[in-house]
Amino acid sequence: MARHATEPLPTGDEKVVAVREMFDTIAPRYDLVNRVMTFRMDVGWRKKAIASLELPAGSTVLDLAAGTGDLCRMLLDGGLRPIGIDLSYGMLAAARTTAPLAQGDALRLPVADRSIDGVTCGFALRNFRELGPFFAELARVTRPGGRIALLEVAEPPNRLLRFGHGLYFGKVVPLIGGLLSDRAAYRYLPDSVAYLPEPEEMLAMLREAGFDAVRRDLLSVGISQLVTATRR
What we know:
Blueprint: H1 12-26, H2 30-38, H3 41-53, E1 60-64, H4 70-77, E2 81-86, H5 89-93, E3 101-103, E4 116-122, H6 131-141, E5 142-153, H7 159-180, H8 183-191, H9 199-209, E6 211-219, E7 224-231
Parallel strand pairs: 1-2, 1-4, 2-3, 4-5
Antiparallel strand pairs: 5-7, 6-7
Helix pairs in contact: 2-7, 3-4, 6-9, 7-8
């Protein structure tokens, strides 16, 4: 997925193909790069996401953009019943989990209406074709009273921290990615933050889709965010 910084980010079908190819490429060392570039903070973020579901043991949780199964493994450890779905065959092939997995598009989930107790998604909102239809699909598959927990990158509200994070995310992360995996992919990831709407707009989209108790919590001084909501 080679591209130059001056090129516009892909959209529509082009974006879907580009994202799938990118994750197929980086799948073999995806977990390693995540741990290195987040200093293992991503593990704690995932634990917070699962705890925020507040679901009883045995609940069925759909993990979207399941990747190599990080959240699926942790959901199983918490007594929940995860089902992982990812667009990338490469990521699913590299998965290390006993949870059932399926290849699929998050905007057209192979899941019955109101059949899921909860949904998790780790750091993939900016990779979907469109967020509005994605949130509508979440509302379709989640039962009334069910919970969603969506992790994504963020920018610290503090100006100095935001500047430092921008340098790290924009310069150091591509360097780490280039040394351990694919440099082009890890150049794209910082750029892809541009796909995300403003926080209040994103929360409003979830309310419009059919969710209540919508909230956004910043994690680790604001470099990550956790968006949670309950199906109306």
